[in-house]
């Protein structure tokens, strides 16, 4: 496995002494690390599933739902996406045969989206390699500074779990 400190140096160092309080410096370290992981995942998602990263996030969100789907407004809310952008992404996923759309019973304006069987099969096949990509990227980009930043933001992470 790759030495995390080797590539963590690629990320910006927030050593203090600047204008930002420690919590914001820590958050910037976390964002830089997650951004690096996301960039790596983007290309693998495109090669593996032939969807955009944002479309992949929609698929993952829907995959975590028990039978059925989610209202589009809820998907937009959970992913922090504008509804108009989500409408386009859902249309692309529907065109690819990966999601279905239907009206919500009793609500003319409500639209629910759900995964198709095709999407479920694709996600089952691709999940392990994609998870491996995330783990590999985290190992590459999360070094001591990022771990320390996470522990500073969420002090409970530094504590050992009680059994």
From TrEMBL:
InterPro entries, sorted: HTH_MarR-typ, MarR/SlyA-like, WH-like_DNA-bd_sf, WH_DNA-bd_sf
Segments crossing the lipid bilayer: none
Domain of life the protein comes from: Bacteria
Residue intervals of the HTH marR-type domain: 23-159
Annotated signal peptide: none
PANTHER family named among the record's database cross-references: MARR FAMILY REGULATORY PROTEIN, TRANSCRIPTIONAL REGULATOR, MARR FAMILY
Record-given protein name: MarR family winged helix-turn-helix transcriptional regulator
Organism: Streptomyces bullii
């Amino acid at each position: 496995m790759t030495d995390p400190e080797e590539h963590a140096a690629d990320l910006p160092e927030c050593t203090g002494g600047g204008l930002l309080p420690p919590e914001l410096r820590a958050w910037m370290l976390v964002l830089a690390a997650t951004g690096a992981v996301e960039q790596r995942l983007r290309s693998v998602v495109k090669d593996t599933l032939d969807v955009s990263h944002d479309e992949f996030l929609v698929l993952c969100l829907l995959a975590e739902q028990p039978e059925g789907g989610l209202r589009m407004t809820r998907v937009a809310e959970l992913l922090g996406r504008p509804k108009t952008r989500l409408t386009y992404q859902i249309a692309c996923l529907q065109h690819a045969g990966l999601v279905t759309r239907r009206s919500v019973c009793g609500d003319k304006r409500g639209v629910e989206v759900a995964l198709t069987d095709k999407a479920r099969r694709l996600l089952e096949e691709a999940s392990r390699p994609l998870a491996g990509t995330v783990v590999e990227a985290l190992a590459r980009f999360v070094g001591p500074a990022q771990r320390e930043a996470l522990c500073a933001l969420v002090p409970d992470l530094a504590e050992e779990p009680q059994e």
